[in-house]
């Protein structure tokens, strides 16, 4: 699929314009709930950082922006704070700055129950993200080599943790079979983390000094992974992420059936380049644009989007058809 490689695949998903939305701008309501928390929009700042004294300020500003705009947030991997209590405050600051908002803990899907409990406790998390990153580990010089036992570990974490578990990929996506296996293990929340955005295989390859990074284009484009995941079974809330960059793409993901969308890399870049106020402006404008696109397809609330037509074209359509997924039902709603 050469044209899709390097991209998230959202260009192949098309929304259908509604010239008669019969809605008043003031009636539009982007709010939703996720893991029992109310959000101003179905949007989350995905896991980014923590663990070094100098990044405390980044989590502080991300959390302030999440609180100011009413969206969710996940902290970065808390491994460092489990090993060194001195850097705990680089994570706990996120809860201090946003005492009532949706905040997710974050660790590798290989963590133990004790570690997961400590991570949740550390930030008084509403849930925990457990990440899968096989491609990144294989590219890292010091990376993991044993990936067996992960599903059994996730299963015992889901059954023993007091908060919801969200399993996420970080840029290679999840196929229908992976999602079905996770659902069978009891997982009810996923972030498909598809290909097309921040690319850890490429980042780690460069870090390791590789000239031609052999697997830098490995992964399921986000649009493909999202639709595979949505066709894997019932009862799972799916977060769409990985190269999701515009409000129109967010509406495409929500129309496909995602519950929430998440972004990481772009939000960090905005914070670094435009400062904390710039980040709040960026998120606020993103939500305004979300409303605009909702008006243009005639949806008053995010939940109504999943009844609106979505035309799946090009290589994404070809892929999904070959995988046995009926794409016409999306176009003819
Ligand atoms: C600087 C940086 C650090 C990240 N650290 C983590 C992490 O600790 N844990 C994790 O699950 N994901 C981590 N991610 C992955 C993101 O949460 C997200 O899954 C990925 O970047 C794809 O989204 P994007 O294309 O919007 O950036 C990190 C991403 C970036 C850019």
UniProtKB/TrEMBL annotation:
It catalyses: isopentenyl diphosphate = dimethylallyl diphosphate. It comes from Sporotomaculum syntrophicum. It is found in: Cytoplasm. GO terms for molecular function: FMN binding; isopentenyl-diphosphate delta-isomerase activity; magnesium ion binding; NADPH binding; oxidoreductase activity. InterPro entries: Aldolase_TIM (IPR013785), FMN-dep_DH (IPR000262), IPdP_isomerase (IPR011179). Transmembrane segments: none annotated. Substrate binds at residues 77-79, 136. Involved in the biosynthesis of isoprenoids. Catalyzes the 1,3-allylic rearrangement of the homoallylic substrate isopentenyl (IPP) to its allylic isomer, dimethylallyl diphosphate (DMAPP). The gene is fni. Its EC number is 5.3.3.2. This is Isopentenyl-diphosphate delta-isomerase. One of its GO terms (biological process) is isoprenoid biosynthetic process. Its cofactor is NADPH; FMN; Mg(2+). Mg(2+) binds at residue 137. Homooctamer. Dimer of tetramers. Belongs to the IPP isomerase type 2 family.
């Amino acid at each position: 699929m050469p044209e899709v490689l390097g991209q998230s695949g959202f260009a192949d998903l098309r929304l259908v314009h509604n010239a008669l939305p019969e809605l008043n701008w003031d009636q539009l309501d982007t709010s939703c709930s996720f893991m029992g928390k109310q959000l101003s929009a179905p949007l989350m700042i995905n896991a980014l950082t923590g663990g070094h004294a100098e990044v405390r300020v980044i989590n502080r500003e991300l959390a302030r922006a999440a609180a100011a705009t009413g969206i969710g947030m996940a902290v970065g991997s808390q491994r460092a704070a489990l090993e060194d209590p001195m850097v705990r405050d680089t994570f706990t600051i996120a809860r201090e700055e946003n005492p009532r908002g949706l905040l997710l803990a974050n660790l590798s899907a290989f963590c133990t129950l004790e570690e997961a409990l400590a991570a949740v406790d550390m930030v008084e998390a509403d849930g925990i993200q457990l990440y899968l990153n096989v491609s990144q580990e294989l590219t890292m010089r010091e990376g993991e080599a044993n990936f067996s036992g992960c599903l059994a570990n996730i299963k015992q974490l889901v059954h023993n943790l007091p908060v919801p578990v969200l399993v996420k990929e970080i840029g290679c996506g999840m196929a229908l079979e992976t999602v079905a296996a996770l659902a069978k293990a009891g997982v009810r929340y996923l972030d498909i983390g598809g290909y097309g955005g921040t690319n850890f295989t490429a980042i780690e390859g460069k870090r390791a000094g590789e000239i031609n990074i052999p697997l830098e284009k490995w992964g399921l484009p986000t649009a493909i992974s999202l639709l595979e995941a949505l066709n894997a079974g019932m009862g799972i809330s799916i977060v769409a992420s990985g190269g999701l960059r515009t409000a129109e793409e967010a509406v495409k993901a929500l129309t496909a059936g995602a519950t929430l969308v998440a972004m990481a890399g772009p939000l960090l870049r905005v914070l670094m380049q435009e400062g904390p106020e710039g980040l709040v402006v960026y998120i606020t404008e993103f939500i305004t644009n979300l409303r605009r696109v909702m008006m243009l397809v005639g949806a008053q609330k995010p939940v109504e989007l999943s009844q609106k037509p979505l035309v799946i074209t090009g290589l994404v359509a070809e892929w999904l058809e070959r995988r046995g997924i009926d794409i016409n039902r999306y176009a003819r709603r």
